[in-house]
Amino acid sequence: MQAVRDKFRNRILACLTPADFALLKHGLSLVDLPVRKLLEVRGRRIEHVYFLESGLASVVVTGAGHHSLEVGMIGREGMTGLSVILAAERSPNETFIQSSGEGWRIAADDLLAATEKSPSLRNIFLRHGHAVLTQMAFTALSNGSYKIEERLARWLLMAQDRSDGPVVYLTHEFLSVMLGVRRPGVTAALGDLEKTGVISAQRGSVTVLNRAGLEDAANGGYGAPEAEYERLFEA
């Protein structure tokens, strides 16, 4: 078990038993994940599932009139392919890389074949699916009930959780999609948080200076999905 943990930063792969990992290992390949790389195209069959080692992926829904909004964030805590593990094989959303990194890729068919051989492996993936749906539910609550500054604070906390330090790399263009607001609204919200001293915003990045203060700024929007994930995947 320890050998599996030591090999991966991705928490799902790291928590697998040697027997479950053996069902996946021959299908896994390490790949670069550059910014804007599409991992899932909406309405198309999902060919591969990715276990991120670093970087960030966004799950984005797009409606009529090209209105887009992020509904999920995936980093090294998780995996793409929610529709695959829920036996739907395609998604109405798209998933793309918003912060570059690398990850392990496996063919969706190989992953499904492995789950058919191991109920424990299937249960791990289903628990992750539950965690993703919990995150999406709180994203809907945040988008519907919270101010832009509070939503931005939540998003920055989630991004920092999946980063290697206090710096979160982003652009105003991405943030406008993530939060469903226009770029001037993003600029204003960043400025408001910067005035309180919880962040420092530069072109292309934000540095978290006071995490506790940023959590206060999120006003309760952050924390519950993260606690649920830890309950499901506690070490």
What are its keywords?
alpha+beta; 11 helices; 4-stranded antiparallel β-sheet; 3-stranded antiparallel β-sheet; 235 residues; single chain
Number of strands: 10
Total helices: the number is: 11
Mean pLDDT: 92
What overall geometry do the principal axes of the alpha carbons give?
Answer: globular
Strands in their spatial order, largest beta sheet: 2-6-4-5
Strand content: 15-25%
What kind of oligomer do you see?
Answer: single chain
Order of helices and strands: HHHEEEEEHEEHHHEHHEEHH
Rg from C-alpha positions? Answer: 18 Å
Secondary structural class = alpha+beta
Poorly predicted spans: none
Largest sheet: 4 strands, antiparallel
Question: What is the distance, rounded to the nearest whole angstrom, between the alpha carbons of the first and last residues?
Answer: 12 Å
Residues in helix, %: 40-55%
Offer a quick outline of the entry.
The protein is α+β, with helices and mostly antiparallel strands. It is built from 11 helices and 10 strands.
Can you walk through the features of this model?
With 235 residues, the chain is of the alpha+beta class. The protein contains eleven helices and ten strands. The protein has helices at 2-7, 11-14, 18-24, 82-85, 108-117, 119-145, 148-161, 172-179, 183-195, 211-218, 224-232, and strands at 29-33, 38-40, 48-52, 56-62, 68-74, 94-99, 101-107, 167-169, 199-202, 205-208. A four-stranded antiparallel beta sheet has the order 2-6-4-5. It is globular. It starts with a helix and ends with a helix. The relative contact order is 0.14.
